[in-house]
Design brief:
This protein is of the alpha+beta class. It has helices at about 20-30, 40-50, 80-85, 165, 170-185, 215-240, 280, 310-315, 330-335, 415-430, and strands at about 30-35, 70, 90-95, 115, 150-155, 155-160, 190-195, 245-250, 280-290, 295-300, 305, 345-350, 355-360, 365, 370-375, 390-395, 395-400, 450. The chain folds into 2 domains: about 10-345, Alkaline Phosphatase, subunit A; about 350-450, 2-Layer Sandwich (Arylsulfatase, C-terminal domain). The protein has 10 helices and 18 strands. Strands 1, 8, 9, 10 and 11 form a 5-stranded mixed beta sheet that branches. Strands 6-5-4-3-7 form a 5-stranded mixed beta sheet. InterPro entries: Alkaline_phosphatase_core_sf, Sulfatase, Sulfatase_CS, Sulfatase_N.
């Protein structure tokens, strides 16, 4: 999912609409409660999930725009590239966002098939009201110079998305292509990375779900996403594949709260997208795999999207990438093994390379850093954004077991915890660096670059 928050599913407290197909995944599998995106923003988060690395390790930050001169390096190994080496068919449907030049597109990075958008669905020359942007509209922060939004199949643009009506068909088109991919490869091992464009603004829904929820357009979109999951599961079952397929459902970062009723919910966690507070990075995660993952189970252990690649390597026997990765095999958690706790800490980086927090067990040490806050600002409505304001925090310590909303700084009560966690902070700064303290880091790799003069 894109920009779906911790509180946006029935199984995590969502209200005003139903998500029965996703809830069934949870009932038949494992629901994680302490699962994180690696960063709270699009490109960085997606680079992480596909490579098993903190995105700043591989030169990724922020959200790449159209005509980006950088993208994923050909030296990085994606999940698709890893599995392709052992005979898997590999496909991506939906949003890519790791560079839109041909050399950065999925078919050059381990995928056999690609259908979708190369970046976010708001990166187009259309205003919040669905009308073409005019130069005068730049007062709203929108630019009329962005190119038309391309829908790509393989390496070629097959059409442009120019209206909200076009956007309303994305979930349906993605679902149809996913069903076709599964049916095409049902007699061989396959890996499908389905990266929905929704519920990233501008949100849009097809006629079959318009007006179906009690939460307006956002609820309608969530119901259509749930339908999409249901279609995929029906296809797996019809092909006799549902009992031998691992299905993982999660999101790239928290909700873009400034968009109000067109944004999701953090379920009470602090702040949202583009912050390293819990609302920006803690995500729903559901793993379903009959016979391996016990049905109806809940995992409260710390885990992250970067753990998916090494876990799939352990499951399939695929060789891990030859370079350093940051993910950890969480298969013991999926098997619900008693006392399994493979990940003991997680670093929260943002911006280009700023270490803003670290979590160890129930403790989250927040390091001094600036951020943009949604709090005390009235959100926008009906597709238009509200405001955010600059804010900052000093050193703070939160006990997430008692205070998942990060409201009560207990650093003065636990100096020994801070002292111990500072060792993790120092290790991260030495390895990955930290712009906030001027540390370059020893083990960062550059992204891919277009050569001068390349289109």
């Amino acid at each position: 999912m894109d920009d779906m928050g911790y509180g946006d599913l029935d199984a995590y407290g969502g209200i005003g609409y139903t998500t029965p197909n996703i809830d069934k995944l949870a009932a038949e599998g494992m629901r994680f409660t302490n699962f994180y995106a690696a960063q709270p923003i699009c490109s960085a988060s997606r680079a992480a999930i596909l490579t098993g690395c903190y995105p700043n390790r591989i030169g990724f930050s922020g959200a790449l725009g159209p005509h980006s001169r950088i993208g994923i390096s050909g030296k990085e190994v994606t999940i698709a590239g890893m599995l392709k080496k052992i005979g898997y068919a590999t496909g991506i449907i939906g949003k890519w966002h790791l560079g839109d030049a041909k050399k950065f597109l999925p078919l050059q990075h381990g995928f056999d098939y690609y259908f979708g958008l190369p970046y976010s669905n708001d990166m187009w020359p259309v205003n919040y009201d669905g009308q073409p942007i005019k130069p005068a509209d730049q007062a709203w922060g929108r630019k009329h110079t962005k190119p038309p939004l391309p829908l790509i199949e393989g390496n070629e643009v097959i059409r442009h998305i120019t209206t909200l009506k076009d956007q309303s068909m994305l979930t349906t088109w993605y679902t149809e292509k996913a069903v076709q991919f599964i049916n095409r490869h049902k007699t061989q091992p396959f890996f499908l990375y389905m990266a929905q464009s929704m519920v990233h603004v501008p949100i849009a829904v097809s006629d079959k779900f318009k007006g179906k929820s009690k939460q307006g357009l956002f609820g309608d979109v969530m119901m259509e996403i749930d339908w999409s999951v249901g279609q995929i599961m029906k296809t797996l079952k019809a092909g006799g594949l549902d009992k031998n397929t691992l299905v993982i459902f999660t999101s790239d970062n928290g909700p873009w709260l400034t968009f109000g009723n067109h944004a999701g919910s953090t379920g009470g966690l602090r702040e949202g997208k583009a912050t390293t507070w819990e609302g920006g990075q803690r995500e729903p995660a559901i793993f379903r795999w009959p016979g391996i993952v016990p049905p109806g189970t809940v995992c409260n252990q710390l885990s992250c999207t970067i753990d998916i690649l090494p876990t799939l390597a352990a499951i399939t026997g695929a060789p891990l990438p030859p370079h350093k990765i940051d993910g950890i095999n969480i298969l013991p958690l999926l098997k619900d093994e008693s006392r399994a706790s493979p990940r003991d800490h997680l670093f929260f980086y943002f911006r280009k390379n700023s270490l803003e927090a670290v979590r160890e067990g129930p403790w989250k040490l927040v390091l001094p850093h600036p951020y943009n806050s949604y709090e005390d600002e009235l959100p926008g409505r009906d597709g238009f954004p509200g405001k955010m304001h600059p804010d900052s925090t000093g050193l703070a310590l939160y006990d997430l077991r008692r205070d998942p909303g990060e409201r009560y700084d207990v650093k003065d009560q636990h100096p020994e915890i801070i002292e111990n966690m500072q060792h993790l902070v120092e290790a991260a700064r030495a390895d990955l660096g930290d712009d906030l303290t001027g540390r370059p880091g020893k083990n960062r790799r550059p992204p891919g670059h277009l050569t001068p003069g390349a289109p």
